[in-house]
Task: inverse folding
């Protein structure tokens, strides 16, 4: 038997796609990414926070701050939804790097998804009661994903150091706990 690392579990896969999408963010206030899946666990859309196309990026001209938020950007979840051309994702899944804000949460509820997971808390008390109430009513699972970002990246690295992996020749590459973020 080969010593094969197991393939990524679905929720880690969704989280890593959201994390990858966040690397396209152009707002230095928060690098947010999202991934949307249908009920069959097929990816339907990805998004990141950034200015509407044609506008100058926050990274270039600075953010427009209103009440502690950057008002310049389209949020990652809304941006992903915009590519669906009105298609809904009943029973589907949403993964976001940060806890969704209320307007984005509402956009995801409109899609009829059944699961919303995020990697990092962000303003955790904003609209908490509202979000919990809607989730109860609609049977939506809303969770902070129990994954450490460094562990997710380690798992990716380990997988690709196994049989058939892209880094199989590079077993010395590691992310140690002592490595600073
Ligand atoms: Zn910004
Ligand atoms: Zn939002």
Result:
């Amino acid at each position: 038997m080969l010593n094969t690392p197991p393939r990524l579990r679905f929720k880690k896969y969704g989280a890593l796609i959201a994390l990858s999408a966040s690397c396209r963010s152009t707002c230095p206030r928060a690098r947010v990414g999202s991934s949307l899946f249908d009920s069959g666990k097929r990816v339907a859309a990805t998004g990141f926070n950034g200015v509407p196309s044609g506008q100058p990026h926050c990274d270039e001209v600075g953010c427009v701050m209103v009440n502690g938020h950057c008002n310049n950007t389209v949020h990652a979840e809304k941006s992903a939804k915009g590519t669906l051309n009105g298609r809904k994702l009943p029973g589907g899944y949403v993964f976001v790097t940060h806890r969704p804000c209320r307007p984005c949460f509402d956009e995801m509820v409109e899609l009829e998804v059944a699961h919303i997971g995020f990697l990092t808390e962000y303003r955790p008390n904003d609209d908490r009661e509202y979000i919990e109430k809607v989730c109860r009513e609609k049977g939506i699972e809303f969770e902070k994903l129990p994954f450490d970002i460094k562990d997710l990246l380690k798992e990716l690295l380990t997988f690709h150091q196994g049989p058939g992996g892209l880094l199989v020749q590079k077993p010395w590459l590691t992310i140690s706990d002592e490595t600073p973020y």
User: Anything to note?
Assistant: The domain at 10-147 is CATH 3.40.140.10 (Cytidine Deaminase; domain 2). Residues 109 and 140 are 8 Å apart (CA to CA). DSSP finds six helices and seven strands in the chain.
